[in-house]
């Protein structure tokens, strides 16, 4: 059984999607439990694969018994072993945490919602586990199509239009990736990532290889909302239902960062990425722009969820910039930040979900008096906020530390300044929210009648997963050393010094 | 001049796919009507499908069906057969394209039902007046 983990982690959620769809006709309440069992099985397989990787270095799985490079190969090493665990855990925790809000928001459509949820997780895990460049494109589109459905099926009127805009941009991104893979196929005749990597070194001088690299990168950047291509993200995530946005916001951008790192390190070796392609400087400058613009746009928002979406734009800048610094510390920071940012984003989006569940909105005016009304939710929010700002011992501090030391080593001082600027902006952003929640009494339009509002917390099923995530932020921070030494150090090839 | 003509003619398949792709991209960026944008998106995807199909073709080659009795394999000259792999890959890409088109049209219908128009500027002005009222 344990040899089948790489296949099981994708097949279980895929098949469960169909079962959930059928169960939706019989009894809507079954859907949630089937989804939980399926995602738990998938998460178990992911942990199993990671443990195997820790023992053996890497795990390969040949689908249908066809040997690579002809068949599709699943290839798990330290890098995607870690990302697999992150994706499956975040998806499972979010599924449990949002049970009540899904029941409230979707009612008749619970079946379709959980079906798409399972397909989305299938796609995300598939992208991470696959070792085949074209297979990755197909899974990219599975993720994207189920993601459009999830984002667009909420009650908010504006969700449809903003999702349609996401669909245009997502399609452009995926098509560019496909085109880049086409160029690679022309020059190498292979689609298997490791096979391409073996054939490429003699062709590094070729213009077609450079074109393939840049076209693939542009496609992936459009998908991850990297700065000039970020336009679709804030509206699409803001207007979606809370359960959908707290699944998609932490995971999709991080998985795309993973794809970018895979392109840079595995398909194209570090020697090509950092020496031949000469792209480091411009890309890091773009990342600086992403961080600064994300921060400035976030400052202009008057809605908690929208503010958080612009913070995601800035965080994407952190990871892209870190990966492109071209040294070990920067790459460590980028990979560690995939883990940390997935948890932080999950934490604050779950908080936004709880607030929407109780207060029916999360504009800043709705947040007044929330510290008294929902102390536990807001407590978790403070932990998430401290982590995004980067206060030790929360995990956000450590990845920022690696990123900054990488930037100093590489001499990219603009990136250091951008990171510090972003931390300051985050302080302003989050303390403004906390201040509104703490000092401004609820319903202040009734001025003189000033009595504290009774506590009205979200139900336990929403609070407990939220606390687990908040505790996770601190735990991951405390165990950063182990994670870096035992996993991330080994995920980075020796070519990067 | 002759050089340029020669490069264009010799690699006409690439020029066709680039032209189609840019047409699609232009429609997606510049058109105001949601359906026209979706059509542009489809042209964009089809251009890449054509690109892939054209790279599998070889001059004077035939379809890749190899006649061989069991145990009697003769040496195969790959120049005689087209490369079937890009074509097969595009079957998947076509399916993806159709699915994307379906989802996009479904969203367009929902947008139309809500705003009674498919012109993006009119929808945006409706959204703007609505947020101002609040």
Characterise this structure.
- By secondary structure, chain A is mainly α.
- Helix content of chain A is 77%, strand content 2%.
- Chain A has helices at residues 5-26, 28-56, 78-97, 99-106, 110-129, 133-152, 158-188, 193-199, 207-224, 233-239, 242-267, 270-276, 280-299, 304-324, 328-359, 370-373, 375-389, 395-410, 413-439, 460-478, 480-491, and strands at 59-62, 73-76.
- A two-stranded antiparallel sheet of chain A has the order 1-2.
- The longest helix of chain A is centred in the C-terminal third of the chain and has 32 residues, at 328-359.
- Chain B has 134 residues and is mainly α.
- Chain B has one domain (2-65, 79-133): Helix Hairpins (Orthogonal Bundle), CATH 1.10.287.3510.
- Helices cover 72% and strands 0% of the residues of chain B.
- Chain B is built from 5 helices and no strands.
- Chain B has helices at 2-10, 12-30, 34-55, 84-115, 120-133.
- In chain B, helix 2 packs antiparallel against helix 3 and helix 3 (34-55) runs antiparallel to helix 4.
- Chain B is elongated and about 80 Å long.
- The interface between A and B is medium-sized, with 25 and 27 residues.
**Number of beta-strand segments of chain B:** 0
- By secondary-structure content and strand pairing, the structural class of chain B works out as mainly alpha
Mean pLDDT of chain A: 90
Strand residue content of chain B:
under 5%
Order of helices and strands of chain A: HHEEHHHHHHHHHHHHHHHHHHH
User: How far is it from the N-terminal to the C-terminal residue of chain B, by CA?
Assistant: 62 Å
Largest sheet of chain A: 2 strands, antiparallel
User: Which stretches of chain A are low in confidence, meaning pLDDT under 50 for 5 or more residues running?
Assistant: none
Low-confidence stretches of chain B are: none
Tell me how many strands of chain A there are: 2
Q: How would you name the oligomeric state of the polypeptide chains in this document?
A: heterodimer
Q: Counting H and I runs of at least 4 residues, what is the number of helices of chain A?
A: 21
Distance between the termini of chain A: 38 Å
Strand content of chain A: under 5%
Q: In total, how many domains does the architecture of chain B comprise?
A: 1
Rg of chain A:
22 Å
**Shape designation of chain A:** globular
